[in-house]
Amino acid sequence: MTNGWTDIANADVVLAMGGNPAENHPVGFRFVMEAKRRRGAKLVAVDVRFQRTAAVADHFVQIRAGTDIAFLSGLINYALQNGRIHEEYVRLYTNAPFLVREGFAFDETTGLFSGWDPDKKQYDTSTWQYELDEQGFAKVDPTMQHPRCVFQLMKKFYARYTPEKVSEICGCSVEDFKKAAEIITSTYKPDRVGTMMYALGWTHHSFSVQLIKAAAMLQLLLGNVGMPGGGLNALRGHANIQGGTDMGMAYHNVPGYMPIPKPKHQSLEEYLKDVTPKPLRPDSVNFWSNLPKFYISQLKAFYGAAATKENQFGYHLHPKLPEDPKTGKLENWSWAFIYDHAARGRLEGLISFGMNPVNNGPNSRKMVYALSQLKWLVVAENFETETAAFWKPEILALVGKKPEDVKTEVFLLPAANFSEKSGSFTNSSRWVQWKYKAIDPPGEAKPDQEIIGRIFMKVRELYQKEGGRFPDPVLKLSWDYLNPLAPSEEEIAQEINGKDLTTGQQLSSFLELKDDGTTSSGNWLYCGCWTPEGNMMARRSTEDPGGMQRFPKWAWSWPANRRVMYNRASADASGRPWDPSRPAIVWTGEKWLGDVPDYPAKQGPGKGPFIMLPEGVARLFTPGDVFKDGPFPEFYEPMESPVQNVLHPKQSHNPVAPILKTEWDKLGTPQEFPLVGTTYRLTEHFHYWTKNHPRAIQLQPEFFIEIPEELGQQMGIKNGDMVRVSSARGQIVGRAFLTKRIKPMIVAGRKVYQIGFPIHWGFIGRGQQKGGLANITSPPVVDPNSFCPEYKGFLVKLEKV
């Protein structure tokens, strides 16, 4: 989230797309309703189904699953063609005036950008660059008239996305699209602000990163980024999933979104030189130039006294991304690929901590097979899950095996639930909130840090006794907690914040971090959460200076307790708010007032507002190899689609999206699987936990499959009938639920039906909670940038059982 839940109350227009917040985020959704009450805000809902958000929306548009980029591209074109952009904002605060190098092109016939290598199936991105001057700065045309400036290239690129073309791709009517476009783009005026809310409906595609980039582009054109009530707001599906990504759960980052070293980085100096950006404009703050301070302080937190200047602060103790031993190329060890490697017999063991990959991984049959190839599996969970019980006959039957065929030794470690342990949650708003456990965990269940502490100390003991190929990372890891078997949450939080190693005092801000080894911080973004004044995360003041719903002394928000990110862009070149009635920050002539400025606090308004980018401004065009599939978002069909891409049939899907290719990974055709399938969540269940809870089971007792009434009538299916949904990967059975909420659509000249089903069921649970494991049907395809699987749009067929 660039803004936050409470700030949504300041919006004039809310676009809920790629998510169903009324149903999946009902507590936070009250701020949307508050915006409607307080400001008369308009809510536009765009979704595959008419759902609870749509029920209270001012306008609803149904689209085909996986066509979101086409819809957003149509909105971009609508704004550009009708002069509904905040032109001064775009000129000052985006790279619209930047000139792009000669040679960059997009072939509208083939659907490919310049630099495509058909043999390697990847792009040479050398033409996706700015034209630079003698000093290495990007050239600009402030008038935005140069034919190679980003603005003109963008206008030409998106001119293809007319309302009629959007209708043909998405299946909505031209009138519905135009009405949505009129409402959404009305926020181009400085005194109107719109926000976008999205969830997994945008992230679960083979083009998910580009989809979210398209949304960000639209918000930038409208001048909504950095504004109170504006921004682009990702709705996290768990209480602490934001905190997990902040702490480096993605395989390619260390905590704080710094890249993990690659094999080519043979020294700390080489790594820092390669990943620390140089400014691309003279007025760029280029805040990532501080990366050496953040990274070296993190190494000090990891390795303590063992990290010295002489040994490059323990740089070689830290892992690097692995290379394929056969090809020498970097290997992908993201989430889906871990199980791909396991299925190929490349893993001996796996620790699954708070995860249920059999249920929430793509192509569940492959997940079961992958686990059956391991020597050992450790599962830390609150309940027995399908992953811990994959060896049972009814689950192994998915892959044609019996328990006696499996040699995997499985350990189920009972873990404390969230109410049974203290610590912090980082919610969607980036608010880091301290909580205290309500009760002790039952039986032998233990909190996370004790499970990890006991495993680590035993592994260290084995290394001390037996040695090993490279014991130093384990033996020299800083682990000086009062109780090393069970570190306290308070110790860990203070370590993450960091301290001055010369005085032992907690740091107050990441601005105090140094690159000389005299400071430590487990995650620079969280530096400021536990200062010399104490635990900032435990604050609970509801004071709200200015009445802007920021509540600066309620908990703590990264970074630097800032509540609206990019808030410098909320004011004009001289520092005056675009909308004086809704200020984020304002320049007095001597200092900034309001929210914590996303800007050097003591500096005047002369620098670029997007301080984390070397351009100093936001990117409409993304240069270089930041994205593997293009500098502008282009619409590609899901990997399994009922129709060819009407824009460029020769390249229907994302050309660089990875397709997993073991014997279990199969793709279907529309001839065999004519329906579009999608998955979603329910208010009444939380992932795969609540199927163990009798009260939640009473609310939603049985797996169901949502079927358009017209399709059900054609097939002789009635409400309550048992039906089978099959994909190229496998099949599931559930209760038919005929509905008006999903209507048939005319797409590319043919009628297309969509069906949907929730994700919460599986083989383990109480009573009717067993069965209907949704991801048996989902495809083995991931986004090329985030590696997130394509759960939200794939091909299936339907039969009456």
Characterise this structure.
- With 801 residues, the protein is α/β, with parallel strands linked by helices.
- The strands form eleven sheets. The protein has a six-stranded mixed β-sheet with strand order 25-27-26-31-24-30. A five-stranded parallel β-sheet has the order 3-2-1-8-9, with helices on both faces.
- 50% of the residues are buried.
Give the radius of gyration.
26 Å
Taking the sheet with the most strands, its summary is: 6 strands, mixed
Question: What's the number of extended β-strand segments?
Answer: 31
The chain-level structural class is alpha/beta
- Sheet with most strands: strand arrangement: 25-27-26-31-24-30
Output the keywords.
single chain; 801 residues; alpha/beta; six-stranded mixed beta sheet; five-stranded parallel beta sheet; 22 helices; 31 strands; globular
Secondary-structure topology with pairs:
Layout: E1 13-17, H1 21-24, H2 30-39, E2 42-47, H3 52-55, E3 59-62, H4 68-81, H5 87-93, E4 106-107, E5 112-113, E6 116-117, E7 122-123, H6 150-158, H7 163-170, H8 174-184, E8 194-198, H9 200-203, H10 208-221, E9 232-234, H11 241-246, E10 253-254, E11 258-259, H12 268-275, H13 291-303, H14 335-343, E12 349-353, H15 357-360, H16 364-372, E13 376-381, H17 393-396, E14 409-414, E15 423-426, E16 431-435, H18 448-466, H19 472-475, H20 489-497, E17 499-500, E18 519-520, E19 530-531, E20 534-535, E21 556-557, E22 585-587, E23 592-594, E24 675-680, H21 694-699, E25 704-708, H22 709-715, E26 722-726, E27 731-739, E28 745-747, E29 750-752, E30 754-758, E31 794-800
Parallel strand pairs: 1-2, 1-8, 2-3, 8-9, 12-13, 13-14, 24-30, 25-27
Antiparallel strand pairs: 4-5, 6-7, 10-11, 15-16, 16-21, 17-18, 19-20, 22-23, 24-31, 26-27, 26-31, 28-29
